[in-house]
Design goal:
The chain is α+β, with helices and mostly antiparallel strands. It has 27 helices and 29 strands. α7 packs across α8, α22 packs parallel to α25 and α26 packs antiparallel against α27. The longest helix has 25 residues. It binds zinc ion. One of its GO terms (molecular function) is zinc ion binding.
Length: 847
């Protein structure tokens, strides 16, 4: 194979396959030295591995560092290597056939992007916190390694550092030696797992302990957030999920301890490092939260726990099979929760999550669940609604199709057969076929290896239910669907459940007999299927009149979900959605439905799917309604939080803004609702963006009151939202030039930059976006680039001209943008797709 030093930080699938054929039985022994107030740290790493000579000139060892001090191979100084920016290249014919021992001494810099070895300074108490985050390809920012999932290894870590810090790793400490203010901890050698699952978290963390049977459980967060933490809650969720998963998998928790650490400036929700899960601090609830927010947090806790089996114990061979990690974690977390007592309605919330899948699957950038991943950049782009949410939906369909017993037995067998190994799609399919007696390969062809979503419609005709299936857009595929449907009879103005049946839809049509008095039918009850369900005008009229009378909240939820899909497909007017939403919001007893399916959707419609004329009509109407609802003194705090959200986002006229101002100063108040720190910041941001005369006063006052890191970030958001051209230019410069600020800090500013009501002021930033964006995606890390491409996209500019600009930009950069960085191309194609969807909806309103 010809050889060249990489010019970007990337690993191709081809190179990874070659390497895993040559390298095996890897073992790392790592020693790190950390100091207070330092920008860098020292490392010493011994890499032991078996090598099989395979005719390559150089063996790549991934490694990003500031300076290498010494390299030895089998005890002798090694000279025969090349040092690139992203790897060392060891001369193949100098390596021993068999065992090799490489030792590297180095100095590296901390990262501030949230990935690699991230360091954070807490402005509130001046403490320092560090954590690692490596998926998919960042372990080599901490130590030299073969950074790919199928060269699994064990790790033995020693850390030297200040004794006032806590050190958390994948295993428990084995020896600890304290000398003065310094401590040396050597952790137990780990089990065998992939490099991206290694973890080290450091800092003066607050700690809580508990046990689940023999397994020690730990929870950690930084000192300044200790007062907000609710460890009993999190331990209760942890113990319940652990018990459910161990029983369902018929395989005990595979590691020695289970720590959950809430770390600052985390890029995702959480990361499933073996025995040391890291979470975003957004899951530390500083204020009263909705039930659905508690459920989502519990879901993330359970999701990461599922990964201890799916992902950590058994790992995909390469990132094309990311779904073997994520689809299972995404589905089984909701499923396990639904078996417990804390969040028994979890599967209803899986339905909300599935909107992510439907949306992603209707973009031109969609891909099969069983994806391709040429390299680690494409691997990163696969962390999307398909690998997670569509995969989860399709697994639920598979479980319903083959039956839970076969599904569960196959999973147990999968762990026993492949523990500590790597797997591919074929391994999964053969075990499912074996245990169910059904040919899962044919099932996989329709569901895992294709793209797109089907639509079902139904009508009642001569006492029978007639179902029609539409092919998925672009590829016109028809699939086999196993669903339940529920029929309702009319009793006065109420709909009463009459019958529920299972049906297999195989082809374009299907039908089933109905009880004679069934008058209304909901398809896909209990949401076993991955499909859109559309309703006729007649059925919609019935729903508008009587939906709230259906007793089962899950069934009501499904209808709301369908209305949203129909609205997005231009088959139901957004203004009609708002009217029906407001009418039924008054009668909806389930606050999760009220929030996720009615109010959240109305807010989205107001911001995205209305013409300026309709927005001007609806904003004040909705603001008045929210105001009236908030005046009801018998509302629960949760209900008040939901209506307050609508009040805030529809406030634009001066008296509406004055009222918000009064809420911050205390001149106004709302029954059962605390205007907490978060709400104060949100109000101030809105007042600033709208140019309220008192905004500056409130802002300087709030900055004095809140000196936390979150306070500083929110202050940057308010600053970026100021309706002032100099301020916008300054913020833009910060976003486009290299900055010593963390990605997380900058992200808050980006979120405050664009506003509908600042259209004129922001007009120049349409072209500025296109001028800057390629450089950002080329030079900055994927998280920063993603935030820039998403949050600084001028989303308010919903015109054919904007669509034209995106398409021209793509065309100027190869064939449909194929010369652009892959993640940017994906982002822009999706933004163009959004406009293609929105523009006809706006056009229709102008009618
Ligand atoms: Zn996951």
């Amino acid at each position: 194979m010809t050889y060249s030093i990489d010019t970007e930080n990337i690993l191709t699938r081809e190179a990874a396959e070659t390497r895993s054929n040559l390298v095996s039985n890897a073992r790392y022994t790592l020693e790190l030295t950390l100091k207070e107030h330092a920008t860098e740290y020292q490392g010493h790493c011994i890499v032991e591995f078996d090598y099989r000579r395979g005719g390559i000139e150089y063996l790549k060892l991934d490694f990003i560092t500031k300076q290498i001090h010494a390299v030895t191979l089998d005890g002798k100084p090694a000279k025969e290597y090349l040092n690139g920016d992203f790897a060392l290249y060891l001369k193949g014919d100098h390596l021993t056939e068999g065992r090799n021992t490489l030792e590297i001494t180095y100095t590296s810099l901390f990262d501030n992007t949230g990935s690699g070895f991230h360091k954070f300074h807490d402005p509130e108490d001046s403490e320092e916190y560090m954590h690692t985050d490596f998926e998919p390809y960042d372990a080599h920012r901490l130590f030299p390694c073969f950074d790919q999932p199928d060269i699994k290894a064990s790790y033995r870590l020693t850390v030297n550092g200040p004794s006032k810090w806590t050190y958390i790793h994948n295993t428990l400490p084995e020896h600890t030696r304290t000398k003065g203010d310094e401590i040396t901890i050597t952790f137990k050698r780990t089990a065998v797992f992939s490099t991206y699952l290694f973890a080290l978290v450091v800092g003066p963390y607050a700690r809580w302990e508990d046990r689940y049977n023999r397994i020690p459980l730990g929870i950690y967060c930084r000192k300044s957030l200790e007062k907000y933490m609710d460890p009993e809650n999190i331990f209760a969720i942890t113990r319940e999920s652990m018990a459910t998963l161990e029983a369902y998998f018929d395989y005990p928790y595979p590691y020695d301890k289970y720590d959950q650490v809430f770390v600052p400036e985390f890029n995702f929700g959480a990361m499933e490092n073996v025995g040391c899960v890291t979470f975003t601090e957004h899951y530390i609830f500083r204020h009263k939260k909705l039930y659905s927010e508690h459920l989502n947090r519990a879901n993330t806790i359970t999701h990461e726990m599922v990964h201890m089996w799916f992902g950590d114990l058994v790992t995909m061979k390469w990132w094309n099979d990311l779904w073997l990690n994520e689809s299972f974690a995404d589905y089984l977390s909701y499923f396990a929760m639904s078996k417990g007592t804390l969040f028994g309605d979890a599967l209803e919330h899986l339905y909300v999550r599935k909107e992510w899948a439907y949306q992603q699957d209707q973009y031109a950038t969609t891909h099969p669940i069983a994806a391709s991943a040429r390299d680690t950049i494409e691997a990163f782009s696969n962390f999307d609604g398909i690998s997670y949410s569509k995969g989860a939906s399709v697994l639920r369909q598979l479980q319903y199709y083959i039956g839970d017993e076969a599904f569960r037995t196959a999973i147990g067998q999968y762990f026993k057969r492949f523990a500590e190994q790597n797997t591919t799609l074929e391994d999964f399919l053969s075990i499912m076929s074996e245990k169910s007696g059904i040919d899962i390969v044919a099932w996989s062809r329709q569901w895992l290896q294709t793209t797109g979503v089907n639509t079902l419609m139904s009508r009642i005709e001569n006492g029978r239910l007639r179902i029609e299936q539409q092919g998925s857009a672009d590829n016109n595929l028809i699939r086999q669907h196993a669903i339940e449907f529920t029929g309702y009879r009319q009793s006065g103005s109420a709909l009463v459940e009459n019958e529920t049946q299972k049906i297999i839809i195989d082809g374009k049509t299907a039908d089933a007999p109905l009880k004679p008095d069934t008058a209304f039918v909901i398809l896909n009850t209990h949401d076993h299927d991955y499909v859109k369900v559309f309703y006729s005008r007649t059925a919609l009229a019935t729903a508008r009149k009587s939906l709230h009378t259906i007793e089962d909240p899950f069934a009501r939820r499904l209808v709301w979900g369908s209305l949203w899909q129909m609205m997005r497909d231009n088959a139901f007017a957004p203004t009609e959605f708002i009217e029906m939403g407001i009418e039924l919001a008054m009668k909806e007893k389930d606050l999760s439905i009220l929030n996720s399916h009615i109010i959240a959707k109305i807010k989205a419609i107001v911001s995205v799917y209305l013409t300026d004329e309709n927005r001007a009509i609806w904003m004040p109407k909705l603001n008045t309604i929210a105001h009236e609802r908030l005046a009801k003194t018998d509302n629960s705090e949760e209900e008040q939080i939901i209506w307050f959200g609508l009040l805030l986002e529809t406030a634009l006229l001066s008296d509406e803004l004055d009222y918000l101002h009064g809420l911050v100063t205390g001149a106004e108040s709302i029954a059962s609702l605390e205007i907490d720190k978060e709400k104060r910041w949100n109000i101030i941001t809105r007042l600033m963006a709208c140019g309220h005369s008192e905004a500056e006063n409130l802002f300087s006052n709030e900055k004095e009151l809140d000196k936390s890191d979150l306070g500083l970030k929110k202050a940057f958001m308010v600053q970026a939202s100021r309706p002032d051209s100099t301020e916008k230019a300054t913020s833009w410069q910060v976003f486009t030039e290299q900055s010593s600020r963390s990605t997380d800090f900058l992200r808050y500013g980006m979120k405050g930059f664009h506003w509908h009501m600042q259209k004129d002021l922001l007009a120049p930033y349409v072209d500025s976006f296109f001028e800057a964006v390629e450089k950002i995606y080329t030079e900055r890390d994927v998280h920063y680039a993603g935030a820039f491409g998403h949050d600084l996209f001028p989303h308010w500019h919903q015109t054919p001209d904007m669509l034209n600009k995106i398409e021209t930009f793509l065309d100027e950069n190869g064939k449909n943008g194929d010369r652009l960085p892959a993640l940017l191309r994906k982002q822009l194609i999706e933004q163009a797709d959004d406009l293609k969807r929105i523009l006809p909806i706006l056009e229709k309103q102008r009618g």
